[in-house]
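Running this now, will post back.
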Amino acid sequence: MMKLFAAFALVTVVAPVWAAAQTVTLSVPGMTCAACPITVKMALTRVAGVKKAEVSYERREAVVTFDDAATSVEALTLASENAGYPATLKQ
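Update: finished.
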């Protein structure tokens, strides 16, 4: 029983280490005015796991920092698309 408890305690301490903050840049070419980034940023920051989103109208891109255990690039691009601004991962 003690070994089981020790194993469980170890997993609960180590598990958060598996999650990592990841930063990606999304291309959002459909932004046509200076107000568009507000909508894109709101959509991105509502995705669970997003820590920060910076959206630039001039560069037509969004830089998003998120917990990769809580969300994915696909979820981010879907959120942007659902807000009316299709996005793709910038390489």
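The first helix runs from residue 2 to 18. More later if anyone needs it.
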